[in-house]
Write a structure and sequence with these properties.
Elements lengths: L8 H17 L4 H10 L1 H22 L5 H23 L3
Length: 93
Amino acid sequence: MVRKEGVAHITRQVAEQGLARLMMRLPATRATIRAAAASQPHFYELCGTYGEACAVLDRMRRDRSADPAIITEYEIICAEIEVDVIKILLGDQ
């Protein structure tokens, strides 16, 4: 995976997980996602944000006492980040 020296270890791990998740969610753009993460620090940070949001969503989905409205909110957040990623890859941002 892509490594960024200026990113803290935990943040790097979360960013790498987010990067992997994005590549799984958007398989047709895997190579482009990987290249963007390697060359654009803000894109790599977005991968970290996506990784964090997905991790929280996963935990809440496993927690039977989690508020369904919060789960829905995180699903929307993840979907919006995916849209942002596509826009960046298409050069719209």
